[in-house]
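Subgroup meeting minutes
Present: P.N., E.W., G.H.
Scribe: E.W.

1. P.N. recapped why we're keeping a running log of single-chain structure predictions: easier to compare across weeks, and new members can see raw inputs and outputs side by side.
2. G.H. added today's entry (261 aa).
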Amino acid sequence: MRYQVTDRDEPGLCVQTRRETDVLIITLQREDRRNAIDRSMADAIDAALNLLDDDGEIRCGVLTGGTRVFCAGSDLRSKGDYVTSRGGEYGIIRRRRRKPLVAAVEGLALGGGMEIALACDLVVAADNARFGLPEVMRGVVPTCGALFRAVQALPPNLAREMILTGEPIDAPRAYAAGWVNRLAQPGQALSEALALAQRISANAPLSVQGSLEAMNSWLACHDREGWEATERALTGIRGSEDTQEGIRAFFERRPPVWRGR
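Output recorded in log:
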């Protein structure tokens, strides 16, 4: 497959953008860190999504992490420094986009990585991809929208199972639940997502954008309450011994010892 390469497509960048006619392909390229998001990566995602919305020749976007991993969420070493003014967390989580964005998921989408997929409009996944919200295993809670978006996108009991056990589900289960739009063979999620994006971009752009805005505005009508509820959950564990233990155990690669305080 041939891509028209933009001037952003330069070696060494943690995020690259490529165009296929009127579709912008955004690729996370920090594979050695499982595409975990830090300051520089959040800024690069923000810039790419600004291009998607602001370039009048682009009608749809595809977000991918490559063929091995989608995203493992926050880089814990960033200590929360990954918020942008236009997009919020990771440059995407609180963004109000005008144009559709399709997630192309291969490998793992964990924690904030799944929350990034929840912030997209459509999801295409390789059939061996896995989605998870493991925060409770680390003594923390999901803070980038999953506590309310997961129960919108998935059956509530499935969302509760994922959040309360921390255990991931595979892409076929997410597809059967109605969240993943299309399954692909391993290595083909980007191709399938691009085909879906091109089908969307063949339609009248103002109709697509107006319809997307209407649907997403309706879905977001309770976002304020969702963020407030998330903040209350975060306040309940902030500074706790268990949170500190969970983070230590993660870095030390050992099981945590919970004390409930």
